[in-house]
């Protein structure tokens, strides 16, 4: 089973929930798919080992063969190719690696060359948790191929906890789309409620069942809880605005390690998710 931990905006506690849930369970896999800002290992402290370089195929144009027909520039919807009167300009940082430009080139003037955009790393063998993370190279904009490469390392024999990128853009959809269940982490504040609704709409569009974790519970008001009750969305867990939890977070310590009572709460949440996911898929 794949559980995506997502949020409509950054800073709501998504990584905190993903790390503590993974540490509370046994024999699970944790993937940090927030490749633009992978933070899980700040709380885990593993000496990560590189396992794969992620490349994106970008076009390289042979000026001697190019006829300036402009088919490639017209095809590219990401403006990675621009037609000038005497040449075609290429912008690899905008390229999505679809390969369409080479297919529409009648002169065979375009060759696709791999360009490194990121790396996949994992915790050493024998670590107490199976953990992998993807990191997008600085200056690169294409997070989705790195996420896809990271997902290729999913071990289907055990539950998978996926720390999703924040927001509702393509990288988040890539994670939600592969998930059996999505946990939306939010706060009951006006901003939190607004961005929670955006993330909820994304999950609904992908037909992924959702539950909610209320972080810093006790702050703000009851608007998220009232909405969930009216819409039949389960509130899976409430993490209070607690000074001890805040201190442990600031020290980079997952709070299930110092507050064992929370291990049972995360285990209970996982059991609830399994039941809801099985109900949604019709599995008994």
UniProtKB/TrEMBL annotation:
<dbReference type="Pfam" id="PF00037">
    <property type="entry name" value="Fer4"/>
</dbReference>
<dbReference type="GO" id="GO:0016491">
    <property type="term" value="F:oxidoreductase activity"/>
</dbReference>
<dbReference type="InterPro" id="IPR017900">
    <property type="entry name" value="4Fe4S_Fe_S_CS"/>
</dbReference>
<protein>
    <recommendedName>
        <fullName>4Fe-4S ferredoxin-type domain-containing protein</fullName>
    </recommendedName>
</protein>
<dbReference type="InterPro" id="IPR002586">
    <property type="entry name" value="CobQ/CobB/MinD/ParA_Nub-bd_dom"/>
</dbReference>
<feature type="domain" description="4Fe-4S ferredoxin-type">
    <location>
        <begin position="86"/>
        <end position="115"/>
    </location>
</feature>
<feature type="domain" description="4Fe-4S ferredoxin-type">
    <location>
        <begin position="57"/>
        <end position="81"/>
    </location>
</feature>
<dbReference type="Pfam" id="PF01656">
    <property type="entry name" value="CbiA"/>
</dbReference>
<dbReference type="InterPro" id="IPR027417">
    <property type="entry name" value="P-loop_NTPase"/>
</dbReference>
<dbReference type="InterPro" id="IPR017896">
    <property type="entry name" value="4Fe4S_Fe-S-bd"/>
</dbReference>
């Amino acid at each position: 089973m794949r559980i995506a931990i997502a949020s409509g905006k950054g800073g709501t506690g998504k990584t905190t929930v993903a790390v503590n849930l993974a540490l509370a369970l046994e024999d699970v896999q944790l993937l940090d798919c927030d490749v633009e800002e992978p933070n899980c290992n700040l709380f885990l402290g593993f000496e990560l080992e590189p396992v794969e370089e992620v490349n994106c195929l970008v076009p390289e144009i042979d000026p001697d063969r190019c006829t300036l027909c402009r088919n490639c520039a017209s095809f590219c919807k990401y403006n990675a190719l621009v037609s000038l009167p005497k040449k075609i300009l290429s912008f690899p940082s905008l390229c999505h690696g679809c390969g369409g430009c080479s297919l529409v080139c009648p002169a065979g003037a375009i060759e696709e060359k791999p360009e490194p955009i990121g790396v996949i790393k994992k915790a050493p063998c024998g670590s107490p948790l199976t953990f992998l993370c993807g990191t997008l190279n600085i200056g690169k904009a294409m997070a989705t191929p790195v996420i896809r490469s990271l997902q290729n390392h999913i071990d289907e024999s055990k539950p998978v906890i996926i720390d999703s990128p924040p927001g509702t853009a393509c990288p988040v959809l890539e994670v939600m789309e592969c998930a059996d269940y999505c946990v939306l982490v939010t706060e009951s504040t006006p901003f939190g409620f607004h961005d929670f609704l955006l993330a909820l709409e994304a999950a609904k569009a992908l037909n992924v069942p959702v539950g909610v974790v209320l972080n810093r519970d006790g702050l703000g008001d009851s608007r998220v809880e009232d909405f969930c009750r009216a819409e039949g969305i389960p509130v899976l867990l409430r993490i209070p605005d607690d000074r001890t939890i805040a201190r442990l977070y600031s020290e980079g310590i997952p709070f299930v390690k110092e507050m064992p009572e929370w291990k049972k709460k995360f285990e209970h949440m996982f059991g609830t998710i399994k039941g809801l996911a099985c109900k949604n898929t019709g599995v008994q």
